[in-house]
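Help!! Second protein's tokens look totally different from the first
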Amino acid sequence: MKFDFDARYFNPEHTLDCGQVFRFSRYKDGFLSLSADKICYVHTDGVKTVVESDDTDYFYNYFDLDRDYAQIVERAKSYNIPLLTRSAESCKGLRILNQNREEMIYSFIISQNNNIPRIKGIISRICEGLGEKRSSPFGEYYTFPTTSALAGADVSFFRGAGAGYRDEYLNKTSNAILKNGIQKLEGLDGEELKRELLTYTGIGPKVADCIALFGFGKMQSFPVDTWVEKIYREDFGGTLKDRKKIAAYFVETFGEYSGYIQQYLFYGKRLNL
């Protein structure tokens, strides 16, 4: 089964390569994208972006295709900030995904003080070791492990997968989630959610912001890393040093559009727009 969407506002490469997700790979004319236990093939064909999957409803929601990004792009450009204007226009097909929440918690624990190729490698090895092998029209793949599977693994497994010091974080947090679930996180506002996420082993402020934004859709989040610090100094003339204060500055400036704008700025800076 498949569906298509206006390619102007759905660019698979920009959406998958902007640092919000790690389980994707190039395939034929586009990408294989994996989430939880599901897989799709997404590619652009002329003026349309096409998604092929046995789980089309899931991926329609995953790629946030009910939301009008034309309005978001125009709002971003209305601030008249040169980098943001260039990025929003050039990357108007970048969409913020609706990702599996538990997968995001574990993925962003792995992401801290790490680079994207290495993060992808660690997650891939964990999926191969603890996930289920599945067949699809696009070949075999591994599902993301359940919390039960993660919690049942020894610290040494995560270390062997390349997680480094994050091995204990994954072990302790998966066991905490196995015991208590994440239902208590549902329905919390952004700040309450981030405070609760900080109680998990291995989750600091930046990782909590990422999980809140990419796992729970809290758009009044603005993750700050070295790229965003660079943007703050070079494109906003900022002088603050504390990342929490920098994040607060951006959220105060952009409000409910903060998450979208963070991605335009972050990805645009990486592309040297």
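Here's the second one for comparison:
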Amino acid sequence: MNSIIGNGLRLGVNIDHVATIRNARGGRHPDPLRAAHIAIEGGADGITAHLREDRRHISDFDIDRLKAELTRPLNLEMAATEEMLAISLRHVPHACCLVPERREERTTEGGLDVAGGGERLAKVIGELKNAGIRVSLFIEADEKAIEASARVGADIVELHTGAYCDKALANDIAGVASELERLKRGAALAKAEGLEVHAGHGLTYNTVEAVARIKEVQELNIGHFLIGEAVFGGLKASVQHMLSMMLAARNGAG
């Protein structure tokens, strides 16, 4: 990716929930592509979009337009299915982040079962990499998942920060400390395994700084919170404020 702030930390902005609002009434407004351009104006290093099997938010048409018009890298989140593999090979985004997906969930819940993915997951990863697409796996920050990610040939792991954010929301001080320690250990192990380290899920202005201080983390992917904040102050301003917090935290890291 092109723009790197404060000791190698990037921000990827997920635009899924601009599409969620659009789809509530149909039509073309608000436009996820417009949101992507505004996020980039605000300093985003890349754009993430999750093309779900049920197309509940991002559509195939959105992916067509994003790939054709984006001025920064596109990270396509997807399940490791034949359908999604074919779509990614047709578009060749900068990266694909493989995530678990269940129809009944509101959002991605928990990390990918890499160890249980077997040959099927390795096949998808191999085909993506052969096409020049970087492969990220959205996983829990635990030793088995990280080591399995390295074995199957992933380039990147994105550590799931949802449990940490849930503990913070509940004002569970001990739980926050425990989850942060788990993320730190996971990030260090992933780097030692030769994996690039990203993190995301549920991060807000109140929770981003502690994760940004983890020196092995090179990218944070944030979506729902920024889109929600945009309702009140605009997307460009929300992205700029998040970047300023990330930069301040990283530059103050030991």
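Reply: Different proteins will give different token patterns, so don't panic. Residues 1-6 have pLDDT under 50 and may be disordered.
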